[in-house]
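Thread: "does anyone have the structure for this chain?"

Original post by V.I.:
We have the sequence but no experimental structure in hand. Need at least a predicted one for the grant figures.
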Amino acid sequence: MKKKILVVDDERDVVQFMSRKLERANYMPFIAFDGQDGFDIALVQDIDIIFTDIVMPGLDGYNFFKKLRESKKNANTPIVVFSAYANHEQTFRELGASDFLAKPFDGQALLDTVERILKRSSLQKTIETVKEQGISRRIVIQVEQSQFIQDLLTLIQAPDSKIAIKTVGHQDELLNEVLKAPPDILFLDALWPDIPTYKTVKTLRSYPFLKNLTILVYANQPEDPKKKNVKESQLEKIRTQCLEAGATSFIGPLTQDALFSVIAEYGG
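Reply from O.Q.:
Generated one for you, tokens below.
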């Protein structure tokens, strides 16, 4: 089903530009030229994301935003504010805006924002599902520190979360952590440079009390443009070696959605 996106702005050329870009990207755009019309649409349609300008006649962006947040139907709908006045960004972020776009912006910036918001919403729904299921897990991830892992820790380790994540690096640190307190799920980086990952799996499986540990191997291609991507044939070889050594599964790239899917799958 196509995602429904509402665009609200009194500048018709801006609305038409955004609508065309969204439609070509296979989204279902809805348009309004003032806050009140936008609010009426949001009450009837199940909108996935709302984009709104600030300066508009009638119901302006600020009061439109406030009215949406006070309504039961759209209290949690992601709202992206766009404006030529960049000094408004902090105010709306503090009010709970999901994102901010400075005018003028191009089509790619628009689509990147949509994708980012939809991924965030999907992840949040998965988090809520995990919480509702009462899943309590201690997870150890072998990973280089990155913005991805920082965002992940912020999202998952909320005060009411029952999921604790510990990140580790080289094999000595990993073994010390796992042997000290075996986790429920261990993620190993297939491309870690120190020691071949299948050897780490073998070492872990040599301990009788780790025989049933859930070991998931992932492989993310390097973010550093100076590093070459790993060929599919090499990844397949690593996958085979890890599974033969006793890994529970080879999950491919580790993303936020993949992580929470795995938590749900191995949450028994």
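V.I.: this helps a lot. The radius of gyration is 23 Å.
O.Q.: and The chain has a mean pLDDT of 85.
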